[in-house]
Design goal:
CATH topology: Rossmann fold
Number of strands: 4
Number of helices: 3
Largest sheet: 4 strands, antiparallel
CATH class: Alpha Beta
Shape: flat
Strand content: 15-25%
Length: 119
């Protein structure tokens, strides 16, 4: 699912974006993202996967949404994406979540995590 987000990952192409968002905007968006993710999860069968993605780099809208979801949904686990994209290894964190940063190298900021329904 590509969740609505602050869009702060595209500041390289749209620099005005950084001045349009407030901390309150980010908090509200993270809450919305969490609700959408929880609703989308109800459609995933055991053994199925759900990808959460946003075009932002804020901790609140990326890792924190996923970590909160996993803490409240024990029937899901983080599914490491690294084995599927070996050429992109530098873009993954140690848990297998994809994160790019604006301008590195000539990319927008983006985050993706794949969740596996285990039960």
């Amino acid at each position: 699912m590509d969740a609505p987000c602050s869009g702060l990952g595209v500041v390289r192409r749209n620099p005005e974006t950084r001045w349009r968002r407030t901390e309150e905007d980010i908090r509200r968006l993270a809450e919305l993202q969490s609700r959408i993710l929880a609703n989308a999860a109800t459609l995933v069968r055991p053994g199925g996967r759900l990808v959460y993605s946003v075009c932002t780099t804020t901790e609140e809208e990326t890792r924190r949404v996923v970590e909160t979801f996993l803490a409240t949904h024990p029937d899901f686990s983080l599914d490491d994406l690294r084995p599927h994209f070996p050429a992109w290894e530098p873009l993954f964190d140690t848990a297998g979540r994809l994160a790019t940063w604006p301008g590195h190298p000539e990319l927008d900021g983006f985050f993706a995590a794949r969740l596996l329904r285990t039960a």
